[in-house]
Amino acid sequence: MSVALFEPYTLRSLTFPNRVWMAPMCQYSAETTGPDAGVAHDWHFAHYAARATGGAGLILVEATAVSPEGRISPADLGLWNDAQTEGLRRIAGFLKEHGTVPGIQIGHAGRKASTNRPWEGRGPVAPGGDGWQPVGPSPVPFDEGHPVPTELTEERIREITGQFADAARRALEAGFEVVEVHGAHGYLIGEFLSPHSNRRTDAYGGSFENRTRLALEVVDAVRAVWPDDLPVFFRISATDWLEEQGWTADETVRFAALLREHGVDLLDVSSGGNGGPARIPVGPGYQVPFAARVRAETGLPVATVGLVTESAQAEKIVANGEADAVLLGRELLRDASWPRRAARELGARTHAPAQYAWAI
């Protein structure tokens, strides 16, 4: 009997060994200052290597900043210099060696930048020392107690677009085979998409066409430096979950069609994260319908994420055509070998190192 979750999947020339993928999740574990700021080290290697030997078909390395001020926290990974490229090369090489496709998410935190690590309270880190002044589409703070971001000029917007392209080029040099543009969770690109955070009156604000302009310019810049035979992903919040003045599911579907025209190969569908009085009906698979709708109405391949925890649940999502792959987050933090366990439960097989063969 065929098990959809463990069938190979091909985008462009790249074949993924299965549809169980690791979602990008920040580790907040890099050095914060000095020559090693943003550089991956032993923690990152051990973390990602364990999930590769656990059978994941794709690992998307955590949100990696395109510039120092683009970090969510001072302890985030970066891809703006050669030392960071080299730090990630070892990780990408190990993943590929052990049968997992190496991918990386690149992003800019925008008005949500310069915050503490979660276990330190998530609050803003003030300029001076480790912190800096955040930027955004408009001078609208993320939340109470957060600083008013500096509104980006069009010149700075063009500079940031170039930084995304530079980071993608470095990712390729490091050996990654998938690059994902982070446009979700209220970070910079998502801030431009949503009228909740974007109050501009120039070419980057107001209409749907203007609010999506930065995202498409970044995608074009990344696609221009990324090989034609390798896929580009885009992560989106399908809705802000705001009743008024937020990004909506209808806009996501409309935008997905544009992303496809601009060379995006798969939409990684999440939701929320842009602040405001959001009411999110969290439950098992609560974001799957957004991904399924994009796939059905645009034909763009999708991956879904959010409280997918059981092997039978994940198999049903893929087998029913609601998504082309599932992205696991917290489940892979709890159990690095979730893919191999799911394969056993479903009567399938996935890759594993020879050293673990007797445990399959």
Short synopsis of the structure:
With 360 residues, this protein is α/β, with parallel strands linked by helices. It has eleven helices and twelve strands.
Throw out a few tags for this protein:
360 residues, 15% strand, globular, single chain
Q: What can you tell me about this protein's structure?
A:
With 360 residues, the protein is α/β, with parallel strands linked by helices. It is built from eleven helices and twelve strands. It has helices at 42-53, 82-97, 154-174, 188-193, 208-211, 213-225, 249-261, 288-298, 311-319, 330-334, 338-346; strands at residues 9-11, 14-16, 20-22, 58-65, 101-107, 135-136, 150-151, 178-183, 232-237, 266-270, 302-305, 325-328. The strands form three sheets. The protein has an eight-stranded parallel β-barrel with strand order 3-4-5-8-9-10-11-12, surrounded by seven helices. A hairpin with a 2-residue loop joins strand 1 and strand 2 (14-16). It is globular, with a radius of gyration of 19 Å. The relative contact order is 0.14.
Please describe the topology of this protein:
Layout lengths: L8 E3 L2 E3 L3 E3 L19 H12 L4 E8 L16 H16 L3 E7 L27 E2 L13 E2 L2 H21 L3 E6 L4 H6 L14 H4 L1 H13 L6 E6 L11 H13 L4 E5 L17 H11 L3 E4 L5 H9 L5 E4 L1 H5 L3 H9 L14
Parallel strand pairs: 3-4, 3-12, 4-5, 5-8, 6-7, 8-9, 9-10, 10-11, 11-12
Antiparallel strand pairs: 1-2
Helix pairs in contact: 1-2, 2-3, 3-6, 7-8
Q: For the report, how would you describe the main beta sheet?
A: 8 strands, parallel, barrel
What pattern of helices and strands is seen along the backbone? EEEHEHEEEHEHHHEHEHEHEHH
State mean pLDDT (0 to 100 scale): 96
Helix/strand/pairing class, anyone?
A: alpha/beta
Low-confidence stretches: none
Proportion in helices: 25-40%
Strand order of the largest sheet: 3-4-5-8-9-10-11-12
Tell me the radius of gyration. Answer: 19 Å
Strand content: 5-15%
Oligomer: single chain
